[in-house]
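Exercise 3.2. Students should predict the tertiary structure of the chain below and write it as structure tokens, then compare their answer with the key that follows.

Predict this chain's 3D structure.
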Amino acid sequence: PKVPQSLKWGNVYLSVSPTLPVLNVAATLYNASGILLGVATLSFDLTTIGIFLDQLDKTPNTMTFLIDNDGLLVSSSFSQPVMVATSISANYSGVVTSNCLKSDAANNAAQSILVCRERADQYGYKPLRDLIQQEPAYVASGRAGSTSVFTLDGKRYYVAVVPIETPQATGMGWRFALFLPEDDIIGGIVKGRNVAIYICVAVVAVAVIIALVVITLLLRPLDAVAERMYRVAMMQDVDDND
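Answer key:
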């Protein structure tokens, strides 16, 4: 069959067993004569994306995120999970919000699973929330091949939000976001500078203390001389042994 030129990505849903958030991709296949052979589908376990992001080479405090076209997090290298699964009754009548998925009860099962994904604008990583608040259009569309500097959560960050745009990703609308704190780059330089400053200050302080001690020792005999001169001036008897 011919290799498909584009893939059709579906929405995130829950697999039956094991209960995991997965994503389907479909490709229409044709033979060499252009005759339709059928449609091939493949499911991806989204939890593996987080493992991949964690294994990327990056500075200690660099954070990476994958955001879908609904503004929900697919994966994150931050410590907070992006998905929370809760056991619910099979006849659960509560509201299932747009960021949540509910597994169907099969064979009269007593329980079902409710999995909710974190919204990017409400996630626990504050620099991400600040960026969405300051530059919503930038986060929504991304900007390929460029890095911007923003002050987020009181610190400077180098940020890249890149749309996933390839013929094989048609219709995804996902963005990859990276946050690199400036302190990770210049922190070592600043730390070295601060150490040098501390050493200089300490040397100066020690020198001042030594100088004060030396001056005190040198001036101590003058006290006795001044006392003798005062007694002579006052016509007081002076003991030669003084």
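Discussion points: The mean pLDDT is 75. The chain is about 30% helix and 30% strand.
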